[in-house]
Every structure is written in C-alpha cells, then in structure tokens.
Amino acid sequence: MVLGRAAAVVIHLLLAVLLSSPASASSSRPKDFDSFWMKTKQELAATPLDARLTPDPEHSDAEATCFKADYASLHGILIHARYCRPARDGKFPAALIVPWYSKGAISPPLSLAKRGVAALEFQARGYEVDQSSYPVDNSWYILSGIETPETYIYREIVSHALRGVDFLSVRPEVDARRLAVMGASQGGGVSLLAAGLDPRIKAVSADFPFLTDWPESLSAPHSPYADVRKYLEEHPERRNAVMKTLSYYDTLDVADRIRVPVLVQAGLKDWTCPAPGIKKLFDALESRRKRLVERPSADHSDEGAERWKTAEDFVAASLSAR
Fold it and tell me: Edge-to-edge strands of the sheet including 262-267?
C-alpha cells in the first residue's frame, strides 16, 4: 500500500511525538530496575558511614572553612573527598559535586562555600584527593565489570554519590532539606541518576552529561562511548549482556522521575557526549522547572569556566529559593 504525502507526514509526526515522550524515553528501563537499586541502597545502608573530617587550613580563609573528608561506600570502599563550608555559623544548603570521568586530584570547592553553599566533591575511584599521579585504572575504567549490572563500575560510582548525599545530610551545619547534586560529563550523568534514585535531592545540574541514551550515543567517535563500541565490535557475542548492563545506568531510566529543578547543558559540537541524546533526556524530564543551555560552538571540553559558573549560579539560586 502506498501512503499519500499527507498521511505519511501525519504518521511521521506521530512517531516523533511517541519517540520523544517520557514514557518512550524510559521504555528501556529494566523491569527489575527498582529492585536492583533498592538492593544496592540496602547494601549501602548496612555499611556504617564512618565519616571523618580533617581540617585543611591551607585552603581555608575568612569566608570558607575546608577539610579533607573520608566516608565508607559500597563494598567498604573508603572514599576520599574535599569539603568546604561557609566560615560563619548557620545552617546552609549543600551540594555534592560528582567528578568527571578519569578525574584524579580534587580541588577544594571554595567558590560554592563562599556563596553560602557547603560543598563536597569526592574522588570517584577511591584514591586520595591530592596524589601527585594516578594509576591507569583511574583514567580508563569504562569496561570494568561491564559483563553484569552487579559488577559494573558504575554501580560503585553511583553508590559513592548516594553515600556523599548521606555524608552531607548528617552534617550539623547542613540544611538537609536543601541538597543538590551537580557535575560535568560523568558527573552530570551520575548526578541525574542520583537525583532519580534519591528523593533527598532537591536540585540537579548536569553539564554535558555522560551515561545518556547508550544505544544511540555509542556511535560517538570519542571515548568513553567509543571504547564500549569497540569492545562490542570485538566481542559481538557479548552485546546482549553488555547492553543489558548499560540499561541500568542510563539517565533516560530516571528522567520521568526527576521533578526537582534541573539545569542541563549541551554542546552542539560535542563529539564525546552527543547533544541529541542529551536533548532527548531533557525532553523526558518531568520537572516543571527545567532549563536547557545549548552551547552552539562547544565541543566536550570547551567553555568550561563559563559552564561551571552557569551550574553554580543555578544551584545557588535553586537552593536559596526553597
């Protein structure tokens, strides 16, 4: 049967609507997604937080007081972080900063603290925050444990973020009703996953987020997506297992569950975390207070300072407005 032009246009438009809807965006969410993450959170809850702070006078000043921080996460992994809070007395909103892929040393999050927001940023692989060098497994881990959802490295990293929220929520100077998560690339993707999994999070900023629309983004020419694509090309017999694993770690899984204020940024020339998947995610977000910032000339590492200022402005405004 040959369709008329008008009928074909109508069908095309209907398909476009269906494919861009929140229900369609989350249709790849595994049936046991909730039970999988519930078990993970139960495992976390059974592990004592064991939070510790060590004063960091070198980076403290009259406006911000900084510390090195430690806390226990999944499998008893000791996570090292930096924590800065406003130097004055009071109850403050707080933000968890999730690092980008392969980030080594962590700098004190002073700028947020000076704006009245306590801030914690963790080293995602369990290393100290100020090592002079980092091993290979800190810079290349996208395939680690990818054979099953239970062993995949992002089960640990998302857990480290959820545990960071635990850390902030029990700090006496933190107003636990005003917590945000934020990050760029890997940090943006993990922040979105955390926001969809943890109702304590009241705002999220995701800058050029990774872990978004895996099936389509695997065509990206640059790592880390390209590393997974190459692995699948070399091991086609493992494709089904790998794609099942990745389906538990896609921001589209939780987009329809994020109803808090959200900032998403996308680079229209980003060859690492492609804009189409990020826009698909944005369209699927259920938040009534969502904002998309498109940067027409930006590849993945471009305009970093401006992007981060936009993220901090959003987080500070979102938390103070509550």
Answer: 52-55, 64-72, 78-86, 118-122, 92-98, 174-184, 201-207, 262-267, 290-295
Q: Terminal CA-to-CA distance of the chain, rounded, Å?
A: 57
- Domain spans in the chain, listed from the N-terminal domain onward: 5-320
DSSP lists the bridge partners of residue 92 as 174
The angle subtended at Cα 198 by Cα 41 and Cα 286, nearest 5°, is 140
How many other C-beta atoms are found inside a 10 Å radius of the C-beta of residue 84?
27
What is the CATH class of 5-320? alpha beta
Q: Which of 129, 142, 148 is nearest to 185 (CA)?
A: 142
Q: Could you tell me the CA-to-CA distances from 172 to 60, 61, 89 in Å, in that order? A: 19, 20, 11
Q: What are the mean pLDDT values of the chain's consecutive 10-residue runs (322 residues total)? A: 35 32 57 98 97 98 98 97 97 98 98 97 98 96 98 98 98 98 98 98 98 97 97 98 98 98 98 97 97 97 96 96 41
Place of tokens 């937080």: 49
pTM: 0.91
Whether residue 188 contacts residue 210, with contact meaning beta carbons closer than 8 Å, is answered with yes
